[in-house]
Design a protein that fits this description.
124 residues; six-stranded antiparallel β-sheet; 12 strands
C-alpha cells in the first residue's frame, strides 16, 4: 500500500499559488492525481481551459470562481466540478489564504487565454 507522507509531498508554485502534490505517477498512482492548493489572500489566477475533469473541494477559506461565464463565491466545504473543455478562473478576494484539495486524471493540461499550454508537473 503506497503511503505518501506529508514530508514527501512535492511543492510547486505558479501564478502566485502553491500546489503540494501527493498522488502522481511518480508516487505510484496509475490513473489519478491529487494535490492540495494554497491560494494566498489577494491572488487572482489567470483563466485557463482544462482538458480533463477536475474536482476541486474547498477545505478552508473562500474563493470567487468563474467557470465558463458563471461566477460563484464558494466557501469551505463546497465542491466544484470542472468538466473537460471548461474555462476556470480562481480569485481569492479575502484577507486570508484558501486551501483546496483537487483530484483529476493523469494528463491534465491547461491552456491560457493567450494560447500558452501548461502541463502541471503535479498532474502528470
Amino acid at each position: 500500500m503506497p503511503v505518501i507522507r506529508a514530508s514527501e509531498a512535492v511543492t510547486h508554485e505558479i501564478h502566485g499559488a502553491r500546489f503540494v502534490s501527493y498522488a502522481t505517477p511518480l508516487t505510484g498512482s496509475k490513473e489519478l492525481c491529487a494535490w492540495r492548493g494554497e491560494i494566498p489572500a489577494g491572488t487572482k489566477a489567470p483563466a485557463h481551459t482544462v482538458n480533463r475533469e477536475e474536482i476541486l473541494h474547498l477545505l478552508d477559506g473562500e474563493l470567487l470562481v468563474t467557470l465558463d461565464d458563471r461566477t460563484d463565491r464558494i466557501t469551505a466545504g463546497d465542491t466544484l466540478i470542472i468538466n473537460p473543455g471548461a474555462t476556470l478562473a480562481v480569485e481569492n478576494p479575502t484577507g486570508r489564504a484558501a486551501v483546496t484539495w483537487v483530484t483529476t486524471s493523469i494528463g491534465l493540461t491547461a491552456e491560457l487565454a493567450d494560447g500558452t499550454l501548461i502541463t502541471p508537473p503535479w498532474a502528470n
